[in-house]
Amino acid sequence: MLQEIKCLTEDFPILDIKALGYEGVAVGQKAYNGVALLSTQPITDVIDRLPGDDGDPQARYVEVKTGGVRVASIYLPNGNPVGTDKFTYKLGWMDRLTARARELLASEEPVILAGDYNVCPTDVDVYDPAALAGDALCQPQSRARFRTLVNLGYTDAIRALNPTEHLYTYWDYQAGAWQRDLGLRIDHLLLSPQAADRLIAAGVDRTPRGEEKASDHTPAWCELT
DNA sequence: ATGGTTGCCTCGCAA
Fold this sequence. Notes:
Layout: E1 2-3, H1 14-19, E2 23-27, E3 35-39, E4 43-47, E5 61-66, E6 69-75, H2 85-106, E7 111-116, H3 129-132, H4 140-151, E8 155-156, H5 157-161, E9 170-171, E10 183-184, E11 187-191, H6 193-196, E12 199-204, E13 220-224
Parallel strand pairs: 6-7
Antiparallel strand pairs: 1-3, 2-3, 4-5, 5-6, 7-11, 8-11, 9-10, 12-13
Helix pairs in contact: 2-4
This protein binds one DNA strand through loops.
């Protein structure tokens, strides 16, 4: 599941990806946002927007069925600065995601909702909670909505299998944050009960973040039986 | 101490 592809759908390099052996679907827009989903298995049942607001132009959600699992690639709004329409949009988007997550639970399929949630669920997920206290990623309203989503019956795969570690997934480009390990855990994999029953491993691969011209995020992953 | 970095929508913006 990819986020911030930052290109038009037709500019996503789908042919290159297919040449590497993956099926793929992208939902893009010019310059900002954009999500995609790659799979070694056939992809069906594509939903290219988060239900609940047909007037929302931002490309932040794609959901498919692949490999017997329903999977969504999520790019939840950042929401900064707090007190603006951006934060209001974030909270509304989270309410829409919760509604969709509730519908998906009723299907009793294995479901994985994964991507950049732009939420640090607790202070353990923040390198300096005091410094980030005013950030949209750490607001009580953001965290409450994340908890509501999990409490529907989803498992935060990385936290469930690693209760005490920080497991940051994002380090700012500025001020040597990566070199000093000043990170945030904002990328999550939420699993329905039917997926969580099959969860055998989950973690964060820090290697790509250390490469030249790295993304400011690094991959989070999980493995099901 | 509100800094600094990245990339496009380019000398402002969103992250």
